[in-house]
Design brief:
This protein is mainly alpha-helical and 405 residues long. It contains 21 helices and 2 strands.
Amino acid sequence: MISVTAWEWIGLFIGMLIGGLAEAWGISNPEVLIRLGRWKDRLFVGCIAIAIGAGALALYGLAALGVSFHWGVKPDYVWGVALGAAIFGTGIAISGYVPGTVWMALGEGRRDAVYAVLGGLLGAASWTLIYQTSFGHWLVTYDNFGQIYFGGAVDTDLYVGFGIAVAWAIIMFSVAYFLPRYKGGKSCAYTSLHKERGLSPQEESKYVETAGMLLEGSSMPLGKHNLPEKVNYHWTVSSKLFGVVMMSVGIIIGLTVVLEMFLHQIFGESTTYSWIVAKIWLPAGTWKYSTLVVHTIGWEPFSDIGTLFGAFLASIFFTRRFQSFNNVIPPSWEKRFGNSQIKRAAGAFSGAFLMLLGARMADGCASGHILSGDLQMAVSSLEFFIVVMISLLIVAHIIYRKVVD
């Protein structure tokens, strides 16, 4: 048995790697997740699917060979996970953020991320209060089937688990391959694997528009014929060198999560909010949930700080999207609600409030459930992802249905 437990501060470097790569994806920009909710840009689903598929194969393959991992399968308390996921998806539709991308957006210098952090802390505090009640107790105990994955109890039947992981990876890779990024086009994976297929004029215009959207508000000149220009316009400027960048980033992130589980724990980014609440507002010893968080916290604060700095460094040296907290409003939000900074601040705050309330209620978020959890083939995480997507699509349709692109 090969087993390792690394120091918690190692999470700082893990967070920097994932934060930098994800900033290159562009998901630190809230417009990306808002467009996902509007079903206008499905890049996030394709990249996450690649990460899950690659990570699941590596995780269960190595585990079957005798490598020991620090598993982090979330317990499946059906109703609490479902309600938390529905609230979480609603919060994403409003704010355009998930817990980890808030830290990335701060690193990228986005002004509305400041309000999102404050709303997220209040959401985490609200769950600490609810957890103390009989309703909170019911949510986490009723129909609680414990830590189970597709093959049974966590860390059991690993040869069977590897066989299931192969099938799961095929499903995930198929999603990444067949799900078009834009309507009428092809996926990034398909385009990367079919070099002979050129982009249609409509697809190319959408890629260029998306790159411009990601650069909107940047305080740094992009320059010409350099790395940042190629990173931002990789599909149209230098397809030979950067045509596989989205696939590569997905694979690297999936394998990094597996490395994390080998070294110390899964990758999760919402627990830090509850930990901060416990330290400055609702102390352990008085509040049950704060006590639970303080006694079980791992390297999440380190990895969140790393995520922030990774995104900061990437936005300065790699993508040049650093905004210096300029007045920038996501285009979909502006078309629906106007360019009022007060309205956008209220949206970022309230959406992040709901997003963190839902994440803590469900015991995980986009990183702890959707990425790390679905990579482990956790039943609770699959439930969470399905309900989040349904909620996100419905609420985003209600909010932005009148928006014309």
